[in-house]
Design goal:
Strands 7-8-6-9-10-11-13 form a 7-stranded mixed sheet, with helices on both faces. A 6-stranded parallel sheet has the order 2-1-3-4-5-12, with helices on both faces. The chain has 3 domains: about 45 residues, 434 Repressor (Amino-terminal Domain), CATH 1.10.260.40; about 130 residues, Response regulator (Rossmann fold, 3-Layer(aba) Sandwich), CATH 3.40.50.2300; about 150 residues, 3-Layer(aba) Sandwich (Rossmann fold), CATH 3.40.50. Helix 1 crosses helix 3, helix 2 packs across helix 3 and helix 9 packs across helix 10. With about 375 residues, the chain is of the alpha/beta class. It has 11 helices and 13 strands. Helices cover about 35% and strands about 15% of the residues. Strand 1, helix 5 and strand 2 form a beta-alpha-beta unit. The N and C termini lie far apart (about 60 Å). This is LacI family transcriptional regulator.
């Protein structure tokens, strides 16, 4: 007879007494190892079923030195790129016999520190971390992690010497600027979201995570190489994707000589540009051109569809799982960091100014006019 919900969970000793055999024999029968005759095994299994015995798989795994679980610490659940990463990590780990525990930090360092503590308490075999900061990271040191292997996903922390799997964000930003310049744009702005910043500013904050740092550097490098000036009014940083992001976009468009095109640092920043464009009656791809980072499902549904720098996030997540499991299998083997190439998906959100030289950006609503016939060289993803 099964135990009621208010009684203690039956133990392996309870099963042994009920079956009338030793605890060792019960253990062998339940684990299906060693020599146990079929009659005894049947008796033990029947007793376990009648008592409602559930084996403590976690305790058994811990005694064996492995729980077959990985910890995944994501920076922002709900952001398309990280949702894809989470799914890919879970699927890749499952194929190799691992389960995945997931926590979300919302780009908060305190939450990240707490997540690490929880994962260690759960006795995960290793950690995949999307770090939310570049300072105060002692909790990621080998001693604080009690020797647990770690791999960083999407972002790197060179000073800690932890292997990482990232995308070539610098090259991605350069490809975006090169594409806009090839279509005649010489006034190109940049809108950036970064954690640990209140409001918005034109000054580059300290402590940018590697992903954002590389995108900002790529923007400036390609502008310089193309001989294009960067007006300080065209670059704004904001602390979140809410009102501060909208304020930052408005500030760029209200500058004395506004840019004709913008590069957005992620999908949320692209949405901020789209919202401001809508409130001002601006048509993306005509009145204002836009290229974003991260390919979201809505990017192709828009009219016009959005040109983006696409990260190979699913491949990155799989590589992170492979890297981590290799560390678990052989802790002494050094694992190298990996950087995967990005891909520019050219759609319809960048106006071809070479087809109509002298076009001037509108920064506020104006009477509707027929759309110009635009000549574009496009590659559809």
């Amino acid at each position: 007879m099964k135990q009621s919900g208010n009684e203690a969970h039956p133990t392996i000793s309870d099963v042994a007494r009920h079956a009338g055999v030793s605890r060792a024999t019960t253990s062998r029968a339940l684990s299906n190892y060693g020599v146990v005759n079929s009659e005894t095994r049947t008796k033990v299994l029947r007793s376990a079923e009648e008592l409602g015995y559930v084996p403590n798989v976690l305790a058994r795994s811990m005694r064996a030195g492995s729980t077959q679980t990985l910890g995944l610490i994501i920076a922002e659940v709900g952001l398309s790129v990280f949702d894809l990463a989470m799914r890919s990590v879970i699927e890749s780990a499952s194929l190799q016999g691992y389960q995945v525990l997931v926590t979300n930090t919302n780009e908060d360092l305190i939450a990240e520190r707490a997540s690490i503590r929880v994962m260690l308490e759960k006795q995960v075999d290793g950690l995949i971390v999307v770090p939310s900061a570049v300072v105060d990271l002692e909790f990621l040191s080998r001693s604080d992690l009690k020797g647990k292997p770690v791999v960083l996903l999407d972002r790197s922390l060179v000073t800690l010497g932890i292997p990482s799997v990232t995308a070539d964000n610098n090259r991605g930003a350069r490809d975006a600027i090169e594409h806009m310049h090839s279509l005649g744009h010489t006034k190109i702005g940049l809108i950036v979201v970064t954690a640990n910043l209140e409001g918005e500013t034109g000054e580059r904050p300290r402590g940018l995570i590697s992903t954002i740092h590389d995108r900002v550097e790529g923007y400036h490098a390609e502008m310089a190489e193309s001989g294009l000036p960067v007006n300080p009014d065209w670059v704004r940083y904001c602390g979140d994707a809410g009102e501060s992001a909208l304020t930052a976009v408005r500030a760029i468009l209200d500058s004395p000589e506004p840019p004709t095109a913008l590069l957005a640092s992620n999908g949320n920043m692209s949405l901020a540009v789209l919202r401001v464009a809508k409130e001002r009656g601006l048509v993306i791809g005509r009145d204002l051109s836009l290229v974003g980072f991260d390919d979201a499902p809505w990017a192709t549904v828009l009219t016009p569809s959005l040109t983006v720098v696409d990260l190979p996030i699913e491949e990155m997540a799989k590589a992170a799982v492979d890297n981590l499991i290799a560390q678990i299998a052989d802790p002494s083997a050094e694992q190298a960091s990996v950087t995967l190439p990005t891909r520019l998906l050219v759609r319809h959100s960048v106006d071809d100014l070479t087809a109509h030289p002298g076009a001037v950006i509108r920064t506020h609503a104006a009477p509707a006019t027929p759309l110009r016939t635009q000549k574009r060289a496009l590659t559809s993803p």
